[in-house]
Recover the amino acids of this structure.
């Protein structure tokens, strides 16, 4: 019995090369999963707190869908990040090289792989579907809805959400209109603006800003205000520009003339590609982990299979 147990122990150790080698592999996977989990959870908080994604998505879809996409993406990062921490805990248990623990470890890893694969496929589908007809939708909204209150979608400042999103986009991406500043010439907002006391040819967010205004964009005060007070530092609604009269008269060097359509499309494609790559990173690590521990589990199960009675009697008779 001692010889048989010693032989079994040597075979098991051969699977891992050595005890230190097995522990080293598990510790390496656990460390990579811990780092990846921390990054994913931080990304989830960043997605929830950063208003730019919500405003830019509002130009491409409805308010409810944009909110759903942002929340779903943040929760996906949270879920995968917490799952990675679960793998770190399970990895400490698999050092004992028990088949049941390794099977549970593989089950959690496969479930995370399925979640990440579903998220990647969803993002790939949205990359093509959300860009279809985007130009016509934006121009129609600009013609009819820009600068007008919508009783169904109103923010705290009285402007509809499309106006807020387009102002934010023009402010942050340094653009004007959909295809250019001339889009406003036939809009409902332009016709009513010419009859007001302060007529404007383009929104003030189309004008070049002062250096002080540029440096104050994205200050930490906005994040603190948003988290603790529920307010947002919406500096794009009343920006400080260099020469507003020259901007309205379209003098060179005072206005953004590039349209926002191509910039928004480039932003969406780059951001969606970044999400895909971020989700592929843990998938690659988990695939390597599945390959290693599947081979280990198969060999362990093969070692633990008892010998058939017939073979035992034949060996005793010999």
């Amino acid at each position: 019995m001692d010889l048989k147990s010693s032989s079994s122990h040597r075979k098991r150790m051969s699977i891992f090369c050595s005890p230190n080698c097995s522990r080293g592999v598990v510790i390496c996977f656990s460390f990579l999963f811990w780092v990846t989990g921390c990054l994913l959870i931080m990304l989830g908080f960043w997605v929830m707190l950063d208003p730019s994604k919500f405003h830019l998505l509002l130009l491409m879809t409805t308010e409810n869908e944009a909110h759903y996409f942002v929340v779903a993406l943040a929760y996906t990062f949270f879920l995968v990040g917490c799952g990675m921490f679960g793998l770190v805990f399970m990895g400490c248990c698999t050092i004992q090289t028990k088949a049941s623990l390794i099977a549970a470890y593989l089950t959690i890893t496969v479930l995370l792989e399925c979640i990440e694969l579903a998220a990647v496929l969803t993002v790939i589908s949205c990359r093509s579907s959300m860009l279809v007809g985007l130009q016509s939708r934006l121009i129609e909204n600009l013609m009819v809805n820009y600068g007008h209150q919508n009783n169904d979608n109103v923010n705290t400042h009285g402007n509809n959400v499309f106006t807020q999103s387009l102002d934010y986009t023009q402010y942050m991406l340094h653009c004007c209109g959909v295809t250019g500043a001339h889009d406003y010439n036939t809009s409902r907002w332009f016709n009513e603006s010419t009859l007001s006391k302060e007529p404007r040819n383009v929104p003030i967010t189309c004008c070049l800003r002062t250096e002080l205004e540029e440096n104050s964009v994205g200050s930490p005060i906005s994040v603190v205000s948003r988290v603790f007070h529920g307010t947002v530092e919406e500096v794009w609604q009343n920006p400080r520009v260099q020469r507003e009269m020259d901007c309205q008269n379209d003098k060179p060097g005072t206005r953004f003339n590039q349209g926002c359509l191509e910039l928004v499309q480039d932003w969406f494609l780059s951001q969606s590609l970044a999400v895909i790559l971020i989700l592929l990173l843990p998938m690659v690590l988990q695939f390597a982990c599945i390959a290693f521990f599947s081979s280990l589990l198969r060999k362990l199960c093969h070692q633990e299979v008892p010998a058939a009675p017939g073979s035992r009697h034949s060996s005793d008779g010999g």
Summary: Residues 12-19, 151-158, 219-231, 310-318 have pLDDT under 50 and may be disordered. The CA atoms of residues 119 and 125 lie 10 Å apart. The first helix runs from residue 2 to 16. The radius of gyration is 29 Å.
